[in-house]
């Protein structure tokens, strides 16, 4: 027999899934479009291995977060029977409708990144990489005749600082894995959870897919090897000198991306594109979400966002205008996503004959 508690839990689960319906519809449409492109260009089953790899990365992030949570819970509550305490705690969490309703969204996140990587590697099929001269000119216009990397050099052009910026740039990957899990499953992140995830999907496709294809460019670190452009040779030489003193791991990644580009690889993480900057877009998205969770945390993630933008230029991945376009596009997607979800919640309130108290 179904108890009142079971019935309320089932109703809560239904409403939460209904509240996420716009995300399902938009994500489904975008994934279907990806399938269509793969079929049209005979890409085959490229994404299958990438999905498995991405799932392992999410699993590793989940384990790390669970370990940190276990340590926190035990140090906070100091239970007499730690094992039973943890079993009861996590059994209750896993039965929470708020957790169950978000599992399909996690599946979407796991599938999305490999699809994006494949699309990113397909850019040359749709457009030539011919925007770099334009973006070099735009940067020089912004920085009074100087390249952005040269303009930043007096501020950050010290080997130790360069190495630290490279470390932060690599730490960015946690925004994808830890960030998604945090905003989907942690109650404290509920005020921004749905809006964050809808933006996550749209940013990867609109900014990282459509705009990257429309404004196809390779970035400062690749214009030399790919096109023989010597504009950034001196700056790349500085990065090599810095790497000889302190590790600058982004140089190894750039070499790997270049090799994959020549091999036409389409796996997870492959593909070359500069405009717009996904590093800047994701750092900005995380800041926008975290400031809803905690004003203090918001300031820390704003600082991280600024460091990523500076690092994207100094480490020769991007032009300064790549980040500028990302900032504008991300702000527009964040605002539009919030408006869409609020409109949907008003519609749900009418359907359920009451206001649905789900945060936008």
Description:
The chain has helices at residues 4-19, 21-40, 46-77, 82-94, 97-100, 103-121, 123-126, 132-142, 148-156, 159-171, 173-185, 193-214, 220-227, 233-245, 250-263, 278-293, 295-314, 320-351. It is mainly α. It has one domain. It is globular. It starts with a helix and ends in a 9-residue tail after the last helix.
Number of strands: 0
> Secondary-structure element order, as H and E?
HHHHHHHHHHHHHHHHHH
End-to-end Cα distance = 35 Å
- List the total number of helices: 18
Name the assembly state.
single chain
**How confident is the prediction overall: mean pLDDT?**
88
The percent range for helix content is over 70%
State the gist of this model.
This protein has one domain. 78% of the residues lie in helices and 0% in strands. The chain contains 18 helices and no strands.
Keyword list:
360 residues; mainly alpha; 18 helices; 0% strand; disordered C terminus
